[in-house]
């Protein structure tokens, strides 16, 4: 089965993990989560920008791992994903996870959010986490919700 088209803009305001985030890898990870064609910008940021955006748009005064700004779900998924390099690195180390695998998970997670998936309610969380696990396993990564 062919994967949907993806127009990807990849920006590095914080270049610390640039070597881990080759464009072809980022596109592959995101395409695996896309159900429709997508036009998505991914911006890797530092903690200051991540905190400012999280405060401005979610009212939360801390940097988070991934922020998704979804503008349209169909016929083309249009969104911006903002990923905080410092938070990803810290969370990956705390989880004992490979940083690249953690980025893959955050990109899959953000791409699902861009399509309307959510995890505010228990049933939504179960659905979204199930999709994330399926996608990550399909990409050759460990299940992010299961400790082995």
What report would you give on this structure?
With 148 residues, the protein is of the alpha/beta class. Helix content is 45%, strand content 20%. The protein has a 4-stranded mixed β-sheet. α1 packs across α4.
List descriptors.
four-stranded mixed beta sheet; globular; 4 strands; alpha/beta; 148 residues
Describe what is shown at a glance.
The protein is α/β, with parallel strands linked by helices and 148 residues long.
Name the average pLDDT: 94
Share of helical residues: 40-55%
Distance between the termini: 30 Å
How many strand segments? 4
Largest sheet: 4 strands, mixed
Strand adjacency order, main sheet? 1-2-4-3
Reconstruct the topology from this structure.
Elements: E1 6-12, H1 23-33, E2 38-45, H2 47-58, E3 66-72, E4 77-84, H3 85-95, H4 99-114, H5 122-138
Parallel strand pairs: 1-2, 2-4
Antiparallel strand pairs: 3-4
Helix pairs in contact: 1-4, 3-4, 4-5
């Amino acid at each position: 089965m062919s994967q949907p088209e993806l127009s990807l803009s990849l920006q590095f305001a914080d270049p610390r993990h640039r070597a881990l985030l080759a464009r072809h890898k980022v596109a592959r990870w995101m395409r695996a989560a896309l159900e429709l064609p997508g036009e998505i910008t991914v911006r890797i940021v530092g903690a200051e920008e991540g905190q400012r955006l999280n405060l401005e748009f979610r009212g939360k005064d801390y940097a988070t791992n991934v922020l998704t700004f979804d503008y349209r779900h169909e016929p083309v998924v249009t969104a911006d994903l903002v990923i905080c390099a410092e938070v990803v690195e810290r969370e990956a180390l705390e989880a004992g996870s490979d940083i690249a695998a953690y980025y893959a998970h955050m990109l899959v997670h953000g791409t699902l959010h861009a399509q309307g998936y959510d995890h505010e309610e228990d049933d939504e969380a179960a659905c979204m986490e199930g999709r994330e696990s399926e996608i990550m396993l399909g990409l050759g990564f460990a299940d992010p919700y299961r400790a082995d």
